[in-house]
Write a structure and sequence with these properties.
It contains no helices and eight strands. The radius of gyration is 18 Å and the shape is elongated. The protein is an all-beta fold. The strands form two sheets. A four-stranded antiparallel β-sheet has the order 1-8-3-6, with no helix packed on it. A four-stranded antiparallel β-sheet has the order 2-7-4-5, with no helix packed on it. The chain has a single domain, classed as Jelly Rolls. Helices cover 0% and strands 59% of the residues.
Length: 116
Amino acid sequence: MSCSSSNQNGGNCCPSPQVFTENLCGNLLGPLTEAAVWSVVGVSDYAQGTFEIFNSSQSLSVMTGAVGNGVDTAIFTVPAGTTEAVSIRRPAIFTVSVADGDNGTFCINLFKRLLA
């Protein structure tokens, strides 16, 4: 009997995977033009990532975020006084553009599967 056909969690051959979560947050102050806020070196071993931008209500412009994984890029805009978020599989880079004098915050939640 192989691991794929047996009770994986209760059997002896297939340990349950563990999910490791990494949370990063920081401040944004313009001017920033496609500034890399976070990136991986080499191939991403993160299974999933959620990338969030909050644009202060005192900001005068829309902020832009872009998250890529080497194949796809998700681009999102964040009007003043709002928060927007995007999730992507196998994230590799997160960039932001912020107008001069505008400010806000970002948060990144990364998920990695680890075998026990």
